[in-house]
Description:
Layout: H1 6-17, E1 21-27, E2 30-34, H2 35-45, E3 50-52, E4 55-61, H3 65-74, E5 78-83
Amino acid sequence: MKKDSPLIEQAKRLQNHYCSAILLMHVGDFYEAFYKDAEVVSQICNTALIKRDEVPLTGFPSESFDEYLPKLIKAGYKVAVANI
Length: 84
């Protein structure tokens, strides 16, 4: 079994801590979501859902944050943001 990257390990820890919220991780110039959060973000924000090393993920450029955050909140989700 392949070991998860440090980013994915951190995402798992944070998702466990903020399990009632969608977790967006600010990585470089993008916000990324993983696993079930990626599926929700992709559906609500109409972003591409892909898999990297079998991990579902989606993301959007940092400059689009003010566009996508209200969509998630309007859909009834709490959102946690982690700056990596």
